[in-house]
Specification:
With 305 residues, this protein is mainly alpha-helical. The protein is built from 14 helices and no strands. The chain is globular, with a radius of gyration of 21 Å. The N and C termini lie far apart (47 Å).
């Protein structure tokens, strides 16, 4: 990985880590549904000119059904889930649960696409999900807060969102192989925008959101969705999907830092330990962490004599 690629990887981790901060700031005034429309709508406005400039609109028209399905599973549903979670969980905690995304991706690839996993990768799945369950058990509470959302419901929303990401990743590989990534990114945001128009209109907040909430929502749309997609697909092109997935390991660091410094959120020992267990399992399950290869020494015929 070249120094420029490493800089882009860290920048992407910071941008996606900040997404949890932006959600925490804006969701209380917008509500989860309206916030999703602002997010995907703003991302569409940013990405569509780039799509036309690169000449990939034809790919979007040719594969609009599959891209639309990916948009619902990869954007609309998980964004709603994280919007609900942001009403009760800290930015850092949401980002830690988000680290379970590669675990779902590997598990669904095993069950749906019949991908073969080594014993080490299967062990990684067990370790990773054990860390998720441990952290969820320690954090979950059935008592609703002022928004009517309990910690248990928020955690379930987070995990359903990561499950959606795992489904969409495998769906993209199965049905959209060879399609320009920018066409998938733009089309998926457009599909989510169209799907969210009526629900957002029905749940739009009566009181106009503050300037701070609008600023956070616009940053969520343009920076954490639009710009992030551009950086992510550049990284995949330059360093490959496996190396680009290392962003998962860096995101919680930035999300926790932003939450502590800007929102005054606290970090517990269980959060740190749970995060380390989840990331360890993720590293094994995705193949980023490999077992050492033992060199075999073959004796020559002269040695054997």
């Amino acid at each position: 990985m070249k120094p420029r690629d490493l800089v882009e990887l860290v920048a992407l981790a910071a941008i996606w880590g900040a997404a949890f901060l932006f959600m925490r700031i804006s969701v209380g005034e917008f509500g989860p549904i309206a916030l999703v429309l602002v997010r995907v709508g703003g991302a569409t406005l940013l990405l569509f000119p780039l799509l036309a400039w690169h000449g990939h609109t034809g790919a979007l028209r040719a594969h609009w059904r599959a891209i639309g399905a990916v948009g619902l599973v990869n954007s609309m549903l998980p964004f709603i889930g994280y919007g609900v979670a942001a009403l009760a969980l800290s930015a850092g905690l949401m980002s830690i649960f988000n680290a379970a995304t590669p675990l779902w991706t590997a598990l669904i690839g095993l069950l749906w696409l019949r991908e073969r996993l080594t014993r080490l990768r299967l062990l990684g799945l067990v370790i990773g999900f054990a860390g998720v369950l441990w952290l969820a058990w320690d954090t979950a509470s059935l008592k609703p807060n002022e928004h009517g959302v309990s910690a248990a419901l928020a955690i379930a929303a987070c995990l359903l969102a990561t499950l959606c990401y795992g489904v969409s990743a495998n769906m993209t590989r199965k049905r959209l192989g060879g399609v320009p990534p920018l066409a998938i990114a733009t089309g998926s945001q457009l599909a989510a925008t169209l799907a969210m128009l009526l629900p957002a209109w029905a749940t739009w907040p009566v009181a106009s959101p503050s300037g701070t909430a609008w600023a956070a929502a616009i940053a969520l749309a343009t920076v954490s969705s639009g710009l992030a997609y551009v950086l992510y697909f550049r990284l995949i092109a330059h360093v490959g999907a496996v190396n680009a997935s290392a962003v998962t390991f860096l995101m919680p660091l930035f999300a926790v830092l932003f939450g502590v410094v800007i929102l005054g959120e606290s970090v517990t020992a269980t959060m740190v330990a749970g995060c380390l267990v989840i990331l360890a399992g993720t590293g094994l399950a995705t193949g980023l962490v490999k077992a050492p290869v033992r060199a075999e020494v073959h004796a020559s015929s002269e040695d054997r004599r």
